[in-house]
Amino acid sequence: MGNPKKIATEAVLVNASKQEVWNLLFNRFGETHLYNPNIEGSHDTNGKTGEIGCERECSIDKKTSIKERIVNAEEFKSITVHVIGGNMPMVKEMQVIMLIDSVSSSLTRVIINASYTTKPSFMASIVKGMFRKMLFGVLIGLKYHLETGNAVSKKSFKSISEKYSILQGSQAFVA
Torsion-angle region of residue 99: left (phi > 0), alpha (psi -120 to 50) or beta? Predict the structure, then answer.
């Protein structure tokens, strides 16, 4: 990846064990539509789910999609995903690393680090804030879904985000 921009999100505390977080992020890789407010749908496409090399496709809207592959994983600690295709505007290359850290048996800290390049390249700095906000939204959605069992959507995310903003520390969403 030529001269990538880097993003690190704030940590989000999820009231779930690291095994539960891992299961959703890795073993249920194609089900990102349950917690990612930036997409309308997702599904597994290639490889065996829950293994390095498995792929998914995410529909951002009716015309835009992105294809991703798990390229590395350290069980219960991190998952590295590369964007391998699709037609998302401006994204040339992108790598996302989800870091999972146990705070206690039922509380897990999750952070996303990403690096990306854009086409045209001058757009990288312009879209950095938007990408950071989108990735942080994924973490809020992950917290919400794991704590309530409810799916997140583009439509429901505004109220979920507002509720998140008033939570204190490790306080959970209430189903």
Answer: beta
pTM: 0.95
pLDDT score at 90: 85
Q: Is the pLDDT of residue 175 over 60?
A: no
Helix (H, G, I), strand (E, B) or coil at 57: strand
Q: What is the DSSP letter of 171?
A: P
pLDDT at 88: 87
What is the domain partition of the chain in residue ranges? 5-164
Q: Which of 66, 47, 73, 28 is nearest to 55 (CA)?
A: 47
Largest distance between two CA atoms of the chain = 45
pLDDT at 1: 65
| Cα–Cα distance, 136 to 113 (Å, whole number) | 10
Instruction: Say which CATH superfamily domain 5-164 falls into.
Output: START domain (3.30.530.20)
SS3 31: helix
